[in-house]
Structure formats: C-alpha cells, structure tokens
Amino acid sequence: MTPGRQARTVPAPLPDRLPPAPEHPPPARRSRDRATPLAVVVAGVLGLAGLLLLAGADPSVPGRYPPCPVHAATGLLCPGCGGLRAGHALTRGDLPAALRANAVVPLLALAALLLAPLRALRRRHRLPGRRDPGTVPRRPAPTPRLLLLIGVGALAVFTVLRNLPVGAFPAP
Description:
Keywords: Membrane, Transmembrane, Transmembrane helix. Residues 1-35 are annotated as: Disordered. This protein has helices spanning 27-56, 69-74, 83-92, 95-101, 104-125, 144-162. The chain is an all-alpha fold.
C-alpha cells in the first residue's frame, strides 16, 4: 500500500432473502373508513332539517328570510337569487314553479339525488371507477378541476342570461 492511500473496504454481501414488510393498513385509511358513515349521517340529518325549515317557512313572504345582498347592493340577480323559492317549490312538489324561480336549484337537487346512491352502489359492489386502483376505466374520468371550471362557466352564463331582457325566463 502506498503512503497517503487508504485501504478500500468491501461492503458486506446482502442476504438472499429480505424479511417481508409488515402488512399494516395506513392509519389514515382506517380512520377515514370509520368517519365516512358518521359524516353521511350528520349531513343527512342537517339536510333534512334544512328541508323541513324550508318547507315550513315560505320565502315569498317578506321578512321570513333576509334579502339577497348582491341584489340589494347592485340590483343584479346572482346565481342564487330565487334559490330559496325554488327549494320551497321543490318541497311542495311544484317543479314548474321551482324552474321559474331558479333553474339551477332543481338541477343540483337532481344531481345530488342521482349521484349519492350511485356512489354508494359503486362503493358497495366495487364497480369500476376512479377510486378503484385495480380497475382501468374505459375512458378517463373528468378531473375535478375540469368539472369545477365547467360548473363555474355554466353559472356565469346563467347569471348573464337571467340579467338580460332576452333571458328573463330564468329570473325570479
């Protein structure tokens, strides 16, 4: 060995078999599974309480609910103007009145009524979807960002239309 050089150390050989990794589910998944039914029950109870309140108190009567702050400040109809009247009409089963008050609320109610059971069925029967890593959907599902952009764009078009003389039909 020459002066100034150090001897090389040879690493120890690796064992042929490594011990198996422990198979513990991640704790976040376990706690989320427990919290999901509770969140569904709480959301259902709050939603039912809101529907009962809306069915009992007619928003067309002045003084029952506060006025829309956007309409009071600007005179323009926001996307939510007429939403309480539409919800009240839906609790009474009057779909034409709900569509006249605010066309978005009946569409959102229909989407909620259709999507919640579909998600529950998909989860229970493990139907193919975005959340199942073992299955590949036939076509890619739209991303949440794309859905959000489409929704915001549709609300913007709805708001502009209901404030024009041409689109007076969706105005309350």
